[in-house]
Amino acid sequence: MNWFEIFVGLRYTRAKRRNHFISFISLISMLGITLGVMALIVVLSVMNGFQDELRNRILGVAAHIEISGFDLTLSDWQGVAAQVAGDRHVLASAPYVSGQGLMAFDQSVSGVSVRGVRPELEDQVADIGRHMKAGRFTDLRDGQWGVVIGDALAQSLGAQLGDKLTLITPEGQITPAGMIPRLKQLRVVGIYHIGMYEYDAGMVFMSLGDAQRLFRTGDTVSGLRLKVDDFYRAPQIAHALTLRLGGRYYLRDWTQSHSNFFKAVEMEKHVMFVILSLIVAVAAFNIVSTLVMVVTDKQADIAILRTLGASPGSIMRIFMLQGVVIGVVGTGLGVVGGVLLALNVSTLVPAIEHAFGVHFLSSDVYQISELPSKLDPHDVWVIAAISLVLSWLATIYPSWRAAATQPAEALRYE
User: How far apart are CA 328 and CA 326, in angstroms?
Assistant: First the structure.
C-alpha cells in the first residue's frame, strides 16, 4: 500500500459524507465491535477468576499429588517420603489415613469422609490451618480423640466447639448378638471454612494415630500427600516420581481426581468464547453494508481516480483501508475498555450492588459470593486478533466491487 492509497483512504474516512445514514451505520459497526470485544475480555477474565478461585479452594484440601500402594495402603510411608524428597519439585509431604463414617450429634446424623493427619505436616501440603473459624488445627493430638469439622457440617448437626460427637464406622464388631457398628465419641476442637460445600459439609480431620486405631490399620497409612512447586505441572512431576519409585506405587495428581469438574469449567469457557465472538462477527460484518453503500456513493470518485491512472488494486486497497480503520478503532476502544473493566470488576460490582440494593451472588446459594476476575494477556491478544481479522475479511467483497467499477458506466449519467 503506497502513500497515495493511504492518503485517499484516510481522507474518505475523515470526510463528511453527503449520506449521513452511511456515517451512522459506520458508527454502529464500530460501537458493535467495541462492545463485543469488551464483553469477551470481561467474561473470559471473570471465568478465569472463577476457575482460579475454585482451583485454589479445592487445592486447599486436596493434594497436588497422592501416593499409595496398589492396594490403597502404604506401609513404609517414611521411606517413600524420603525418596520423593530428593525431587527438587517436591516441597512437602504428609501421610494420611482415610475412612468413611456417620457423624451423629443429638438427633442429627450426616455421612462424612474422615482423614487422619499429622497437623504439623498437613499444614505444609494443605491450607486447612489457615481457614480455621474456631479452634486450632494443631489441637489434633494422638490419644485425645479430637476432631476438626467444617462449618457447614457443624451447622447441619447443630454442633459447636467443645461438643462431643459420635462417629459410627462401617468396621463392625462381632458379638453374640451379631455384627454391630463401632462407635467412637469425639470432641470438636476446631471448625474450618474452605468455601467448597463438598468439603465444609463432608470432610472431618482427626489425628493420624487416632485414625489408625479407629480404622485398625496399625502402622499402615492410606497414602502420602505431596505439595509441588508448580501445580500446573503436577502430571509431569507425578510421571517423573513414578519412574523414581520404580513403578511400585500408584500416583494420582489433582487433575485426575477432579478432572470432570475442570473439564466442565474449561468447556463452558470455550462455549462462552464462541457465543460472544458472534457479537464481534455480527458487528464486523456490518462493515460490509457500510462499505457497499460507500462504494455506491463514491462511484463518480472511483471513476475519476481510475481515469487518472489508479489501478483496480489501488481502488480495492483504498476501500479496504476504510473498513480496517473502523475495525482497528473499534477493537482498540474495546480492548482498552475491556481491560479497565476486567481489572476493576471487584470494585465496580460491589458499587453496583450497593447502588441498586441487590446481591448478584448470594453466599446462601453460591460457593463464591464475590465476582473474581483474572485478566489473561493471551486472551486479550487472541480476542483483538480475531476482531481485526473479521474486520479485514468484511472489507474484501465491497472493495472488490469498488475495484470492478467501470469508469465509463459510472460517469455516463454524471
Answer: 6
- How large is the average pLDDT for residues 159-167? 91
Q: Evaluate whether 369 touches 361 at the Cβ level (below 8 Å).
A: yes
Distance CA 251, CA 375 (A): 33
- Could you give phi then psi for residue 225, rounded to 5 degrees? -100, 135
- Amino acid at position 369, single letter: S
Instruction: Round to whole Å and give the CA distance between 334 and 40.
Output: 9
Cβ atoms of 193 and 128 within 8 Å: the answer is: no
Question: How confident is the model over 20-27, as a mean pLDDT?
Answer: 67
Where do the domains of the chain lie?
Answer: 3-56+261-409, 65-257
In the structure grid, which three cell numbers stand for residue 119, read together? 497437623
The pLDDT of residue 17 is above 70: no
Burial class (CB in 10 A: 0-12, 13-18, 19+), 401: middle
What pLDDT score was predicted for residue 216?
Answer: 87
Strands (E), 203-332: 203-207, 223-228, 250-253
User: In this structure, what DSSP letter does residue 372 have?
Assistant: -
Q: Tens of pLDDT along 90-99?
A: 999 999 999 9
Counting every residue written for the chain, the total comes to 414
User: Of residues 200 and 57, which shows the higher confidence score?
Assistant: 200
As given in the structure block, the three cell numbers for residue 198 are 463438598
Kindly report the pTM of this predicted structure. 0.71
